[in-house]
Amino acid sequence: MNSVSDNSVFVETESYRRLLEALEVIRESRGNILHVVGAPGTGKSANLYRGIQEVGLDVYEVPCNLESADVDADYVFRHLLDEMKAELGADNRGDLYSKLAEFDAVVFADRFHDSHDFSEFTGFSQWTATAGSETLKFYLKCILEYIRNTRKFSNMNIIFQTAWRFYFRGKKLDIFTDIPILSSVLFHSLRIPFTAVRIDYTVTETLNIIKAHSGADEEEIRRYIELYGCRPRTVLEKMRSC
User: Fold this and answer.
1) Bridge partners, residue 36, by sequence
2) b/e map of 144-155 (b: 16 or more CB within 10 Å)?
3) CA distance 226 to 222
4) Residue spans per domain, the chain
5) Cα–Cα distance between 84 and 48 in angstroms, integer?
6) What's the whole-model pTM score?
7) CA–CA dist 218, 212 (Å, integer)
8) Does the domain made of 14-200 have the CATH classification 3.30.460?
């Protein structure tokens, strides 16, 4: 597993315990699709990578290393398949799916969404920021591919670090967590066909996480939580920038 997340300091929360339960199911069975959702800054990656490590899953992280963001959905889809075939030594698409099924899970997380953060390539989230309707076209191609190969996918477990991000008044939001009523409806709808775990925290959990990563006093931390919500990574970044 190629993890770009630093879990040297980690505080367990109720969300993390729910995630562990879902990952333990994946370890013992096949055909599972798990969505891990959470607002920007809550630490979805830290929780996911820690959980994978604790449960002891052998996973394959899907790469997305685009040369440019100026490409269409067809190119992105082909490029992802070609990258995976090259990495796993697969001769064709059927061979690729057989090799993916050998892992405990196939993971779409940092290496897929944010490869631009640790390489010279363009990651999927960077591509979607400017792709417009091509993003929807890409998702439709993926759904069609799944339907065409349902039997092969039934032998795999797939974990998605799921986000549908947008900017409103200069603030990055996620449709599954940040819009009252609508986010709740969408999240619970996601749980009907799939397993879904939302990474969120109480104020007390957020305080404990931030205290573990900084020497700030509780009063100062609470002021930042009031400004930025229960998003530990965001709060820590704001505190360190001051």
Assistant:
1) 161, 197
2) eeeeeeeebbee
3) 6
4) 14-200, 202-242
5) 21
6) 0.89
7) 12
8) no
